[in-house]
Structures are given as C-alpha cells and as structure tokens.
Amino acid sequence: MNNVKSQIQFNMWENNPALVQLLGLCPLLSVSTTIINALGLGIATLLVLFFNNIIVSLIRNHIPKEIRIPIFVIIISSLVTCIQLLMNAYTYELYLSLGIFIPLIVTNCIIIARAETFASKHSVVAAAQDALGMGTGMGITLVLLGAIREIAGNGTIFDGANLLLGQWATPIKVEIFDFNANFLLALLPPGAFISMGFLIALKQATDKRFRNKDCKVKNPS
C-alpha cells in the first residue's frame, strides 16, 4: 500500500507531466481559462490515460514491436471517441466549450509516452497506478492554472459549473472581484504562459525548501 501511495505521489509531484516534464502544454495553456474547462479536460485526459495504460499493459506481450506505436494510437483514438460521445450526450455545453481539444487528446504526448515507456513494460496494477499519478498531476495543474486565470481575468471562480455538473450547480459561481471589463491578458495565451511560469517557479521553490529542510535534519550541525 505504501509503494502504491509513494508511486502515485511521485508521479503527481516530483515527476509531474506538466510542471516537470512540460508535456501536453498546448491543451494545458489553451483550455485553462476557467476552472470548469480545466476540470473537464483534466477528467477526460485522466480517463483516457487510465484505460489506455490498462489495455496496453494487458496486451503488451501480444503487440509486435514494429507496429506498437500505431496500435497505441488506435487504442487511444477509440477511448477518446468514447469520451467524446459521452461528453456530447451528458455535458453538451462543456463539449462545445472544449471544442477541438477533446479529439486532440489523441495526440497528447503524455498518453503516448506513458504507453510506450511504462504501460508496455509493466503489470496492469503498476500501469494503473502510473496513470492515476500522471493523470491526477496533470489535472491538478490544469485546475490551478484555470483558477489563476479565471480569478485574474474574470474576477470569478467556478463560473460555468453548470456546464459540467448540471443546472443545480449554477449558484456555485462566486464573484470575487467586480470588473467593469475582463482582464484580457490573463485570458489570452500570454497570460497562460505567465501563469504557468509562476506555477513552475512555485514548485521549484517548494522543492528547494524541502531539500534544505532535509539537509538540516541529516546534518544538524
């Protein structure tokens, strides 16, 4: 149990796909204008990554090495199509909001990379753990980035919660600042890059602080 927990934590923090490996930046920076958009894409990516890792691990001994990448892409495409149809059926407005970035999950290098470097070489349980850690790390980064940009750009938080959760969630929206006009820099691509830079810097500063604390514990003198 401790090994499972430590593996998931490692993938979420120390090997975070967005903040450390800098993978999947295109959808990360484009979609994260609100928390709900970010959460919707994060959940979709996590589900595709999770089931893809499991399927690849199950059939890893039956895939010819010469055609493994095309097979991985076919599996990912099938899973993305299923997710796309489900979102179209149950969260149609969010589906429209995310637009092209749902089918583009197929080309997300995080999913292909984990299939190639991990799921195709490990057991189903290990592959599932890897997907949970990587997918959750990506999702948390998406939500944090969405929160920063939504608050700075619109002065709100959880705007459009009804798109993901239904009409009952409309009152969840909280207005933090009353802007006469949106702060467009936060909502446009430059704001996404700036916000991402702050998150990466914050992670590095946190890691440095923990390393210094560990050094003091090991060398109290």
UniProtKB/TrEMBL annotation:
Its EC number is 7.-.-.-. It is a multi-pass membrane protein. The chain crosses the membrane at residues 35-55, 67-86, 92-113, 125-148, 183-202. It is an enzyme of class 7 (translocase). GO terms for biological process: electron transport chain. It is found in: Cell inner membrane. Keywords: Cell inner membrane, Cell membrane, Electron transport, Membrane, Translocase, Transmembrane, Transmembrane helix, Transport. Pfam families: Rnf-Nqr. GO terms for cellular component: plasma membrane. The complex is composed of six subunits: RnfA, RnfB, RnfC, RnfD, RnfE and RnfG. Belongs to the NqrDE/RnfAE family. Part of a membrane-bound complex that couples electron transfer with translocation of ions across the membrane. HAMAP family: RsxE_RnfE. This is Ion-translocating oxidoreductase complex subunit E. It comes from Candidatus Photodesmus blepharonis. The lineage of its organism: Bacteria, Pseudomonadati, Pseudomonadota, Gammaproteobacteria, Vibrionales.
